[in-house]
What we know:
The chain has 167 residues and is an alpha/beta fold. Helices cover 41% and strands 24% of the residues.
Amino acid sequence: MSGTVLVAYASKSGTTTEVARRIGACLREEGLPVEVRRAAEVTSLEGYRAVVLGSAVRMGQWLPEARRFVGRFSEALRERPVAIFTVHLLARENSDESRAQRESYTAPIRACLTPVSEAFFAGRLELARLSFGERFISRMVKAEEVDARDWEAVCAWAREVAARVKG
Length: 167
């Protein structure tokens, strides 16, 4: 596995899983060996030349699984290039307020490591994939189902990450 790029992720409803897999596919297209795994399944960073770590957002922060990954591997993460990505439906807006909110999601992560690249991707809302409580809240705020993922932006970012990892 020497030289492999790890794409580790935390996902609640599957949207971030799909983004992580697409990132992995795009990195492979750039000639990099890649392994895509749930963050909770990773037991060591031995043999990985770089890490791409991503998470969905719930309650204004990365999922616990991704935060634990950073805590568990903080020393090893500082020894290799790390890129981070966040998937959240509200990433569709590009206002100053929206950017500041997005940056607050990853501030605790950036306090532990300095990513070579960071991206925010709009997600998807599919009510059937949510918990009962999340569906209830979504209906109360009259949220509509939407898939706002921009696959071209995901691959463009993966190409940028590949260039930094190769260089």
